[in-house]
Amino acid sequence: MSREKEIKRLIAEDLLRIGAVFLRPEEPFTWASGIKSPVYCDNRLTLTSPDVRTDVEESLAETIKERFPEVEVLMGTATAGIAHAAITAHLMGLPMGYVRSGAKDHGRGNQIEGRLEPGQKVVVVEDLISTGGSCIDTVNVLREAGAEVLGVISIMTYGMKKGIDRMAEAGIEWVSLTDFDEVAATAADKGYISPDDISRLMAFRDDPSDESWIGK
Which end of the chain is more exposed for a tag (fewer CB within 10 A), N or C? Predict the structure, then answer.
């Protein structure tokens, strides 16, 4: 098994074990958009579990060194990526900062917090990629400030086509420690869900707006 696959499996097992990813295809969750979802993801829970937190941050550091060896600064997305960027930057001996969702309406009106020099090579740290919107917004802010964004790294991605297409259109290289496919397979192996549920989960991933998977 490759090291990349080992990390995918490890992080999937960790997220399922602490309930950071919770699969409930029989009783879907409702997103703020109204879409019915068989999955609930809250990677903030990784911060409250020391062993999982260690796995996540060490895997982020290892993967960044492998994929983006020229990195000079880590930038977290607000708010979920901030803590992970800070811890990972500490492990790597790098400076870090974060990008607000909007400029402050007081003080210096910063949207980028932390020192960032034009031309610096940046990796953005995100907790979860779904449609890619927040990542793209963050990258655009950093690019406008003169940074060279090498790429984005997340703890997990749903692997939705919309997100993949949008990131490609924006010219953003990205990598995730684990993904929805790995989580679904691991959940079936560990008995969290039935193997028959995997096809329903994949149908949701392929088109979240199509709710025909419900009740199958």
Answer: N
Instruction: Give per-residue pLDDT as tens, 43-93.
Output: 999 999 999 999 999 999 999 999 999 999 999 999 999 999 999 999 999
| Encoded tokens for 91 | 């492990």
d(CA 189, CA 191): 6
Percent of the chain with pLDDT over 70: 96
Residue 111, Cα to own-chain centre: how many angstroms? 21
Q: Please count the CA atoms within 13 angstroms of the CA of 74 that sit on its side-chain side.
A: 29
* Per-residue tokens: 157: 């991605």
CA 2 to chain centre: 21
- Strands 36-37, 29-30: pairing is antiparallel
Q: 40 falls in which pLDDT band (50, 70, 90)?
A: very high
Q: Return the SS3 of 55.
A: helix
Compute the distance between CA of residue 216 and CA of residue 212 in angstroms, rounded to an integer.
Answer: 8
- Asked if 167 contacts 132 with a C-beta cutoff of 8 angstroms, the reply is yes
Put simply, whether the predicted model's pTM sits higher than 0.85 gets the answer: yes
Q: With the C-alpha atoms ordered 208, 210, 215, 216, is the resulting torsion angle positive or negative? A: negative
Which 3 state secondary structure label does DSSP give 166?
helix
